[in-house]
Amino acid sequence: MSVLPPVDQALLPADVRTAGKEARERYHVALAFERQLTAQLAKQLASTAGESLEEGPYAQLLPDALADAVTAAGGLGLARQMAGLGTEEASS
Questions:
Q1: What confidence tens digit (pLDDT) does each residue in 21-55 have?
Q2: CA angle, 20 as apex, 18 and 22 as ends, to 5°?
Q3: Which of 34, 44, 53, 78 is buried deepest, with most CB atoms within 10 A?
Q4: How much is the pTM?
């Protein structure tokens, strides 16, 4: 199980930065959950894709790399809702 790296506060959405410390903490926890969910989905995807993705030398690294990339790009959008911040469109 990997841990979410420290998040640069400047990269957080504006409404998350201004929502207060508790909201930022909820967002970080929700983002960590979202990352784990993404990794599990990627593992399942790899297992159904056949032997080519299951047995390579880097096969075990692929789900985590994908999850890290999705999280670094802003995630799936679930963290904002789980943290009680609503949708990004609504906060604009």
A1: 898 888 889 999 999 999 999 888 877 776 666 67
A2: 145
A3: 34
A4: 0.71
